[in-house]
Structures are given as structure tokens and as C-alpha cells.
Amino acid sequence: MKYFICLFSVCILMVSCTENTSKKIATETASEEINCTDYLSYQGRDDQATGGIKMVPIETPKGTFNVWTKRVGTNPKMKVLLLHGGPGMTHEIYESFDGFFPQEGIEYYYYDQLGSYYSDQPDDLSLWDTARFVEEVEQVRQALNLNQDNFYLFGQSWGGILAMEYALKYQEHLKGLIISNMVPSIPDYMKYNEEVLAPQLDPEVLATIMKYEAAEDYGNEEYLSLITEHYYPKHVIRIPQKDWPNSINRGFKHLNPDVYVTMQGPSEFGIKGNATLKDWDVKDRLHEIKVPTLAIGAAHDTMDPKQMEWLANEVKNGRYLHCPNGSHLSQYDDQEHFFPGLVSFIKDVNNNTF
Q1: Residue among 112, 120, 258, 301 flagged as catalytic
Q2: S-S: 91 plus which of 110, 153, 172, 274, CB 3.0-4.6 Å?
Q3: Annotation says 217 is catalytic
């Protein structure tokens, strides 16, 4: 009911906006404007019966599995596929987009990657491989009929790694690329974490965390409590834990530890052990990305914002968006900068004014 009320409110807003030419919702060109009725309608779509949800079959070396997607809105020129982080997190961390994309007429897709809560969760660790995930995204793109005329790929954190890898192989299918809160080098991220972020913690808290890290006692309740009470509120989401949005709590509750530990490792304080992402680095290949690219960094992020700005200058056609009040989940703790900058990028690319 709450979601219906939200959409109904958006509809009223969008109808009123059609009377004001300064607030056109799609491309600011009357011939391409998407009105409220068209944007919210499912009529004639193959996902009408499911309210936008489509289970997409994915071919893998270990068989065929299904992944969950959900479309919100309709716009033939601006379609955004959201790649969640983790790895093994869910689309739920992007539910804040419901408050900002619809009134801009942007069509967007929630998507749980294979292994994540709403999709199939096969019990085979060999599937948690970056190259295989890239092929999964390509199959999802095809199933959703996204192409170079409308396809914007948004990836945050691990999703940013996946987005960069996808662009390096399949950028001919992209209209725009958004890399949010993810630097192009895990070793650089680890160095920033150790040399810049860790010293910002209370010395006693840091010493206790490092004691558990050294013992590889990552499941210890005190260790987890210190991370969530002291590290997360500074660098992951700058909101007191008791006030975290329900969508964030659900996302953490639904995280698949098998995917997460295989790729990210067991530590909550960096990438450790035999994690498959431990040595990931594409800095030397960024110049190959020619599609319009937005890099989003945040002042309090776990990722170095200066390196995000460097990334924007390293690709052929980049722009940097800085969130001065944000951390790793800037879509929640710095919405006043995150969403206007993101929407402007999408519309500028769409209008050929990027």
C-alpha cells in the first residue's frame, strides 16, 4: 500500500509538471516527453502480469539458473540496470531510487545477481567468478532488450567492479556507464583502508579489531559489534545503526555468505584470505572505456574519493560526482548530491549534451 501511495503521489506530481515546460520529465524535448500514464503503464508489456518482475534464465558452465529482475517505469531512451554490491547482497539497497527516478521519467531495473536472495542460489562455489558474472549481465541485458540506444549500467561497490569488467568487454551495448563508490584497484583500496581509514578509529577499538583480524576470528561477536558500531557509521552508511533504513537491514539480512566470503573474504575490514577479488586491478585498462562514464565518490567512503576522480579522468569520456557528506552508501546518506548528479548525467547523455 505504501508503494502504491508513493507512485500515486509521483503520478500527481508528474501530471502537474506537464504544465510547466521547465520540468519536463524525460528529455526536456516535447516530442520525447514521457507522460505519467505512459511511464506507469504495464499494458502491452510481457511483464504486466507480474508487475514488472521477470525471471531471466542464465546459462552457466554448471547449468541453467534463474535470476530475478523487476522493471520500474517505461522510457525507451533511458533504462538503468542496477548492479548491487556485496558480492551476494541484494537489490534492496537501491530501494531509495524509488524516491528519485520515477519523477524524472527514468526507467530502471532491480536485479538480484545469481546467488543473491531473490534469485537461484546454487551450491557451487566455482560459480562465484567475475568473468562468469560478466556473462550473466550480458544475458540479462539481452533478456531485457537493453541496447546502445538506451542502456545505462549502474554498479556500486562490487557492482562497480562488475560494471567496469562488463564495459571492458561489452561497451558497444552501452549508452552510459556509472561506477559508484568503487576504485579500479583492490590493492589500492586495501592500502587506503590501512593507511587512512583505520587510523581514524579510536586506538583501543582499532587494536581490538586488529587482534581478531590477526586471529582470523571474524565471527566473534565483539569483533562484529565493533565493526558495525564504529567502522560502518563512519564509512559505510553515516546513519546510526538504530536508524538504518529498513531496506538496508533487509539487504544485510539477505546477504549470501557463500558468495561474499568466496569473493570478498571473511573479514569485514578489507579483503583478506583467499578471496578471489584480492588482487583485482584494471587501472591500466581504464583508457579502453570510451562510453560516457560517471564516477561517484564520497568524502567518507571506504574508497578513496581522489581515486574516483582520477578514474573519471582516465576513461575517455568521464565525469566525476563528489558527495561531500556521503560514505559507501551515498544513495542514503548524501541524497542531496548523489541523485541530482546521477540524474543530470543520465539526461545529459540522453540529450547529447554530455
Answers
A1: 301
A2: 110
A3: no
pLDDT at residue 25, as a whole number: 39
Residues 6+ away with beta carbon under 8 Å from 134: 162, 165, 166, 169, 170
Q: Which of 120, 322, 328, 333 is catalytic?
A: 328
CB 266 within 8 A of CB 333: no
Q: Which amino acid is located at 302 in the chain?
A: T
Spell 166-179 as b/e; 16+ CB within 10 A means b: bbeebbebbbbbbb
Q: Is-catalytic flag, 330?
A: no
CATH 3.40.50.1820 boundaries in the chain? 47-354
Closest among 283, 284, 282, 327 to 304, alpha carbons compared: 327
109-165 per-position pLDDT tens digit: 999 999 999 999 999 999 999 999 999 999 999 999 999 999 999 999 999 999 999
Tell me the whole-structure pTM to 2 decimals.
0.90
Is 328 a known active-site residue?
yes
| The dihedral sign for the CA sequence 44, 46, 49, 53 | negative
Cβ-based neighbour number of residue 204 at 10 Å: 9
Helix (H), strand (E) at residue 222: helix 221-226
Which residues, including other chains, have CB under 8 Å from residue 293's CB and lie 6 or more apart? 167, 176, 177, 178, 179, 312, 315, 317, 318, 319
- Active-site annotation holder among 119, 157, 185, 330: 157
Decide if 302 contacts 183 (C-beta within 8 A): no
What CA–CA distances, in Å, run from 52 to 46, 69, 102, 214, 236? 8, 8, 14, 47, 30
Cα gap 98→7, rounded to integer Å:
9
Q: Which residue has the cell 546513519?
A: 239
Q: Which CATH superfamily is domain 47-354 in?
A: Alpha/Beta hydrolase fold, catalytic domain (3.40.50.1820)
Contact 114, 136 (CB under 8 A): yes
